[in-house]
């Protein structure tokens, strides 16, 4: 990963990353679908998925802007590293056995535009799904509409 990338705050490689925490919008069907997909992958680095803005997220990470974590994917490393947006997307792929080579390429200048395009597409789908009817606070994000991916 490029240590100088916008929003990328990778700590020096003093020790390997032992786990990553992914904050996701639990009231968004797209985010919940991606959460299920991540849980179905074989990790190289364990992923902990926590609802953004939740009591658990606020207690674990009191210095984060929790309103921002509901708007944009946020990933936190076990040494306090924080990635958002495109960088968070790349780090999630980097943590997965089958997707690490793709993540390494997406982190390069040649691959980065594709990562940004994927994030813009996901944001557009998320907006379209949510614009059709916002989930009520505290209601399940998907109900029966959003089965876990196979």
**C-alpha Rg (nearest Å):** 15 Å
Spans with pLDDT under 50 lasting ≥5 residues?
1-11, 135-150
Q: For the largest sheet, list the strands in their spatial order.
A: 2-1-3-4
H-E order: EHEHHEEHHH
Number of helices: 6
Structural class: alpha+beta
Shape call = globular
**Average pLDDT level:** 82
Largest sheet: 4 strands, mixed
Distance between the termini: 30 Å
Classify the helix fraction into a percent range.
40-55%
Strand content: 5-15%
DSSP strand tally: 4
Strands, helices and their partners?
Layout: E1 20-24, H1 29-39, E2 47-51, H2 55-60, H3 66-71, E3 74-77, E4 82-84, H4 85-94, H5 100-106, H6 112-131
Parallel strand pairs: 1-2
Antiparallel strand pairs: 1-3, 3-4
Helix pairs in contact: 4-5, 4-6
Notes on the protein architecture:
With about 150 residues, the chain is α+β, with helices and mostly antiparallel strands. The chain is about 40% helix and about 10% strand. It has a four-stranded mixed β-sheet with strand order 2-1-3-4, covered by helices on one side. A hairpin with a 4-residue loop joins strand 3 and strand 4. Helix 4 packs across helix 6.
């Amino acid at each position: 990963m490029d240590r100088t990338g916008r929003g990328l705050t990778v700590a020096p490689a003093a020790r390997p990353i032992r786990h990553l925490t992914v904050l996701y919008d639990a009231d968004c069907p797209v985010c919940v679908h991606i959460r299920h997909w991540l849980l179905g992958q074989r990790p190289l680095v364990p992923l902990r998925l926590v609802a953004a803005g939740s009591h658990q997220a606020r207690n674990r990470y009191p210095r984060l802007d929790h309103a921002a974590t509901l708007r944009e994917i946020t990933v936190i490393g076990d040494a306090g590293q924080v990635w958002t947006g495109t960088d968070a997307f790349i780090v999630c792929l980097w943590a997965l056995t089958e997707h690490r080579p793709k993540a390494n390429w997406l982190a390069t200048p040649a691959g980065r535009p594709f990562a940004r395009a994927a994030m813009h597409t996901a944001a557009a789908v998320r907006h379209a799904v949510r614009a059709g009817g916002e989930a009520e606070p505290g209601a399940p994000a998907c109900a029966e509409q959003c089965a876990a991916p196979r």
